[in-house]
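Tokens for chain A. Residues wanted.
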């Protein structure tokens, strides 16, 4: 088997087994693309280790980037990690994938929902999705890697709102 076909085959098996779900339209009200997960440990502001479909996964939050707080400490990195830890530690969450389920480090890429969404309206994203909350409260910057762009328009607005309100890391921005 060629090295290029093996990851595709593994992805297909995972999708068929339900470990990874498809990145369906956010307007879908079926909720089929949401997968329950248990947070085992927060790594930093934008990464956590979760139990997803019986598999321990390193999950990287799509669309956001927080300052570093592991190998190197960047300004506001510890605050961002603490924010995520308070939001996630030991919680049951729902994860939603997008077009590409994994990054080059083999981390599962996901939007993390603190509560299961009903309709994914703007109000619901603002209230229930951790990725959005990190932006709205000024603990993250928007960081988009196509094709995973489902919420990019909303994230752009959330970051601007946080910057204008001088929330979180934007408080000292000049």
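Reply:
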């Amino acid at each position: 088997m060629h090295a290029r076909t093996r990851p595709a085959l593994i992805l297909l098996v995972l999708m068929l087994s339900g470990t990874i779900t498809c990145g369906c339209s956010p307007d879908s009200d079926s909720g089929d693309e949401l997968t329950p997960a248990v947070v085992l440990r927060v790594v930093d502001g934008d990464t956590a280790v979760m139990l997803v479909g019986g598999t321990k996964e390193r999950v990287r939050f799509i669309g956001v980037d927080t300052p570093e707080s592991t190998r190197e400490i960047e300004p506001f990195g510890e605050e961002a990690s603490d924010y995520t830890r308070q939001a996630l530690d030991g919680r049951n969450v729902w994860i939603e994938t997008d077009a590409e389920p994994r990054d080059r480090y083999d981390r599962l890429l996901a939007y993390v929902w603190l509560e299961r969404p009903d309709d994914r309206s703007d109000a619901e994203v603002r209230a229930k999705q951790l990725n959005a909350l990190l932006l709205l409260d000024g603990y993250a910057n928007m960081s988009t890697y196509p094709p995973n762009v489902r919420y990019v328009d909303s994230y752009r607005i959330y970051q601007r709102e946080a910057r204008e309100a001088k929330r979180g890391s934007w408080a000292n921005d000049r």
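The chain is about 30% helix and 20% strand. The longest helix spans residues 152-165.
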